[in-house]
């Protein structure tokens, strides 16, 4: 396979152009199976013990992680990065990438765990079904370790530039070692969800027992406008995971990391719903007891505890959907095994 014709050297370009690719391609040390548009499964000749799903662009305008994943695939294709684990790489929402929007018809990251089956068919519902099938096929062997990092960027700036959302998994809990790996990859804060969700990371954690996280890697920017040097630590850890290299991180790596528990969700209840703060207010901005957070014709929402921080505030979501998470700082011991 010459580099010029190889879909893996610029998988993003192939995906956006919707160029047809063969079903499978053989390389010296691995094979590539093109499962669907923007979804490729790589199998090394002698796979190590962990199956890794790496996804990006579930929201089409979150381009930095897409560029990072595209770069890692190219490194594998050129033989610069040794693939030693099975890898499923997913460019989440190609149509939204082309439209340079978060989504075309509906937020793809609310349609997992089969939610896409409920309601009229649209671009994101079709895509959720395709992605779920690919993941189920890839994670078929329950005896193997499973990792899924779903890479995003946030709409607004953040007090913690890079942070991870931990899906609700009360039975399994979180191991400090697992979080330390993300901290090594420059994750500064962890946010523990308090309830089931229909996000992609929850899907993988809940249905496949994967060590799954939504990973926020800075702020949204158009293709070509990202400074990928800011993601170098993340790239370094991903390379080591893919190459099955040992990553020596002790739990002490978490010493400077912040932990937050989701305390409540603010849902948009009416078209008149507004936040009390400006659009440039950063994620994790803190409110104190009695501060007004949001209001609508039907209600006013105040901070009702000593300190509460707000994450992912978005008043533009449809009525009934999550408009923000309210989180409180917690000690590590309270959220980890
Ligand atoms: O910046 C924002 O408001 C949204 C960033 C984003 O896409 N976040 C994910 C989080 C998913 C999770 O809760 O695990 C989302 O809203 O889908
Ligand atoms: Zn996102």
TrEMBL record:
The UniProt record gives the binding positions of Zn(2+) as 59, 62, 152
Residue ranges crossing the lipid bilayer per the database entry: none
CDD domains in the cross-refs = M14_ASTE
The record, for Pfam families, names:
AstE_AspA_cat, AstE_AspA_hybrid
- Write the Enzyme Commission number(s) for this entry: 3.5.1.96
What GO MF annotations does this protein's record show?
Answer: succinylglutamate desuccinylase activity
- Do the record's keywords include ATP-binding? no
Q: Which Gene3D superfamilies does UniProt cross-reference here?
A: Zn peptidases
Active-site residues, as the UniProt record annotates them = 216
Q: What HAMAP family has UniProt attached to this entry?
A: Arg_catab_AstE (MF_00767)
Under which pathway is this protein filed? Answer: Amino-acid degradation; L-arginine degradation via AST pathway; L-glutamate and succinate from L-arginine: step 5/5
Q: How is the cofactor bound?
A: Binds 1 zinc ion per subunit.
> Which transformation does this protein catalyse, written as a reaction?
N-succinyl-L-glutamate + H2O = L-glutamate + succinate
General function of this protein: Transforms N(2)-succinylglutamate into succinate and glutamate.
Q: What is this protein called?
A: Succinylglutamate desuccinylase
Which key words are in the record?
A: Arginine metabolism, Hydrolase, Metal-binding, Zinc
Which coenzyme or cofactor does it need?
Zn(2+)
UniProt domain AstE/AspA barrel-sandwich hybrid: residue ranges: 257-329
Position of the signal peptide? none
